[in-house]
């Protein structure tokens, strides 16, 4: 279920790849924090707009390590006198 950014008295409900716009009960609004419709209250309005409608998602840090090998090839070739016999 996801918030409807255009109307906080409704929310999106997804089922089998289809989205349905559902209303919250009277005198309640959608809370993305609680993932449900909640009653308007002093506590709720004490939260900032960001906290009410756009909660922080956890941050995931991915660290990758790459090991490379360096191959050094000679740039000159030594020719021995044995090669010309």
Keywords:
85 residues; three-stranded antiparallel beta sheet; 26% strand; two-stranded antiparallel sheet; alpha+beta
How would you sum up this structure, described in words?
The chain has two helices and five strands; from the N terminus they run E-E-E-E-E-H-H. It has a domain at 2-53. It has helices at 42-46, 49-53, and strands at 2-3, 10-15, 18-23, 28-31, 36-39. The mean pLDDT is 77. It is elongated, with a radius of gyration of 32 Å. 5% of the residues are buried. The protein has 85 residues and is of the alpha+beta class. The strands form two sheets. The chain has a three-stranded antiparallel sheet with strand order 1-2-3, with no helix packed on it. Strands 4-5 form a two-stranded antiparallel sheet.
Short account of what is shown:
The protein is an alpha+beta fold and 85 residues long.
| Largest sheet composition | 3 strands, antiparallel
Shape: elongated
Mean model confidence by pLDDT: 77
Order of helices and strands: EEEEEHH
The secondary structure category is alpha+beta
What's the total number of strands? 5
Separation, N- and C-terminal Cα atoms: 84 Å
Number of helices: 2
Order of strands across the biggest sheet? 1-2-3
Helix content: 10-25%
CA radius of gyration is 32 Å
Strand content: 25-35%
Report the uncertain regions: none
